[in-house]
Every structure is written in structure tokens, then in C-alpha cells.
Amino acid sequence: GFLMQTSQMLRKICMRNLVRKYCRGLTAERKVQLQQKVVTSAVFSGKKEGYLESLSQPFLETRLKENDLNPKVLQLIRGENIKYVTPVIKYDRNGFKARERLLVLTQSSAYVVEMAKIKQKIEYSTLKGISTSNLSDGIVVIHVPEDNKQKGDVILQCEHVFETVTKLCILANKQSVVKVVKGSLRFRIGSGKEGTMVFTVGPEPQVFKDKTGQLTVV
After folding, report:
1. Contact assessment for residue 107 and residue 171, using Cβ atoms and an 8 Å cutoff
2. pLDDT (tens digit per residue) in 102-117
3. DSSP secondary structure of 157-206
């Protein structure tokens, strides 16, 4: 029994040393990757299609560099540390027209940017929720409070949905507000109005306004 106990203790010590050695050998970049992937797993594992395939794809620090942004935009958000920039498609809340935009995440806020204009600013402290569907689409809805500052919730389509949502919820420190929804979700258009988005499966991916005026994501 004594030898058995000693053997188990040695095994534990050996394992601990191996883990410590492995962690010490990790580059800072690899550590960040692993920390981010842990958050992605907590938010999406077993909930959203495409999660398993995303595991092998390392997250990039950013999709666009700071100097890819228009100087006017840089001027407007100067003093804020830019952490992540990615191209997105933004859908208008009313007619659902698709528009090419950039999503800029700083240390304190998310910005929806059109060329040289900031179209919407969401301070992380006011962010109410982040919704995605359980299907393989890249739709993300950023829910904002009902106040005069905000025009309504932001509907985006992101190519790298797991990466973008992970970066957003880590920077905002709001992992708990991410929801993976089935079937449909409600979003705020502004001035007390709400809209509905429907998620469905079909032969080819598309996003359109259906006859009932809902945004349908296939």
C-alpha cells in the first residue's frame, strides 16, 4: 500500500512538472490563442454548427490592420486602443439592405464604420447581449439599450463568426450575455419597435426579407 501511494504521488508530481514545463514553453501568442479558444468552447461547444471545424483554425489577432482604417476614423477614436478590425456586412434594421462595413473593437467600445464615418458606437458597459443562431450562418446581433444614443440593435454578418464573437465578449468582459438561439430571434429597431429574424435550413445560404417583412437567414 505504501509503495502504491508513493507511486501515485510521484506520478502526480511528474505530471505537474510536465504541465508546468509545457506552459512555460508556450509563447505569449499561443497562450492568448488557448485562452480565447477556451472562451469559444464555453460559448459555442455543442450549440452552434461549424464549431468543431473552427477548432483547428487559429484566430488572427485582427483581420485588418489599424492603418487600413481611414485617417478620419482613426482621429475620431484616437486614444482608444484598437484591438480587432474585421470587414462585416451590416443589415439595415428597417429594409434589411445589406451594406459593407467594418467592425472595429477597441479596449472600451465597438464601432460600426463606413469608410470615413462612424455609423454606430456601442460602449461595452452598455452592451445588453450578443446573439447568434445555432446554424452555420455568420449572423451576429449586438443588443443595445433603449436610449436616445442608440438607433437600435446591430445586425451583422461575419465571415469569422467564432473569432469575432469571442473577441467581442472577451473585450467587453460579457461572456455570459452571448446567446445561441434556435429558430428565431427578436431585435430592437429603435423607438420602441421590434423586428424578427428567422433562421432556417436550405440548399444555399442567403439572407432576405420575406413576404411577412421578417429577415430570413438560410
Report:
1. yes
2. 999 999 999 999 999 9
3. EETTHHHHHHHHHHHHT-GGGEEEESSEEEEEEETTEEEEEEE---SS--
CA dist list (Å): 10 to 1, 2, 6, 7, 200: 14, 12, 6, 5, 55
Domains and CATH numbers, the chain: 49-217 (2.30.29.30)
pTM as predicted: 0.87
d(CA 158, CA 168) in angstroms, rounded, equals 12
Q: What does DSSP say about strands 129-133 and 178-181: parallel, antiparallel, or unpaired?
A: parallel
- What does the block give as the cell for 204? 444555399
**Residue the block writes with cell 429577415:** 215
Helix axes 161-172, 28-44, angle to 10 degrees: 100
- Which amino acid is present at 145? P
> Would you state the pLDDT for residue 95?
87
Q: Residue 168 half-sphere exposure, CB side, CA atoms within 13 Å?
A: 31
Taking the C-alpha atoms of residue 37 and residue 33, their distance in angstroms, rounded to an integer, is 6
